[in-house]
Amino acid sequence: MRLSTPRLALAAVLLACAGPLLAQEAVIRKALAERLPKLPPIDEVTRTPIPGLWEVRMGTDLVYSDDKGDHLIVGASIIDTKTRADLTEARMEKLLAIDFAKLPLADAIAIKQGSGERKMAVFVDPNCGYCKRFERDLAKVKDVTIYAFLMPILGPDSQLKSRDIWCAKDPAKSWRAWMLDGVPAATAAAKCDTGALERNVAFGHKYKINGTPAVVFADGTRKPGAIPLEMVERLLEAPAAPAAAKKS
Questions:
Q1: CA torsion through residues 156, 122, 213, 246, sign
Q2: Angle between helices 171-181 and 129-138 (to 10 degrees)
Q3: Which of 7-21, 163-177, 206-220 has the lowest mean pLDDT?
Q4: Residues 6 or more apart from 45 whose CB is under 8 A from it?
Q5: What does pTM read for this prediction?
């Protein structure tokens, strides 16, 4: 297909604009690779709203560089003073989002409250104090199905407790009994299949879930820690992400 003259002109303009950006990205990549050889592979270099400052993404880690790669800013946030929005936090939320449709729900304990119409997932450890506090709040939420992924990362005792809960006749009841009332589950039979617990830990490593509780909502939003009940309710009302949606 032949492009018309206006389309050719537009294409030329786009290429002219992209050229300097690509060249600048190459400069930053080259400088950082040569000067910091132990730096993880750079996945993306993008311009920030601040002139001369570039975002350098390595997996889900963000740092900032000047336009020559001479200096790096690590552990900082970019704040929009007009809106007071934390642009770095917003960017991290996009990077850390988990497609709810891809969660291995068969490896979770499903806890249905009311109609169970709304959906959320939590990654939890039975010895996590914050998880216990959060569980008390979650027990108050109406019309929700909570998928609890047991992720025993706090030591051998967490693994034993998770095994006993997962292998119980009614895992959801055993989970709540332990988390809310401190009633331990009966010792699991030796033949019980606990592969789900190993897969949950591996899933956590893959998606950098480094602490519990970690919460995932139907729209892909992910929040760390025992977030307030008001925030839980607000995020439960967010529309679910389309099945074909891709993370940008």
A1: positive
A2: 110
A3: 7-21
A4: 25, 28, 29, 54, 55, 56, 57, 65
A5: 0.73
Contact 146, 120 (CB under 8 A): yes
Q: Residue 234: how many CB atoms within 10 A of its CB?
A: 12
Residues 6 or more apart whose CB falls under 8 angstroms from that of 109 comprise 147, 148, 149, 150, 165, 166, 171, 172, 175
Contact assessment for residue 171 and residue 165, using Cβ atoms and an 8 Å cutoff: yes
Site of tokens 């292998």:
167
Q: Chain centroid to CA 30: how far?
A: 30
Residue-wise pLDDT for 93-113, tens only, equals 888 889 999 999 999 999 999
Residue found by looking up tokens 């992209």 in the block: 18
User: Burial of 2 by CB count in 10 Å (0-12 exposed, 13-18 middle, 19+ buried)?
Assistant: exposed
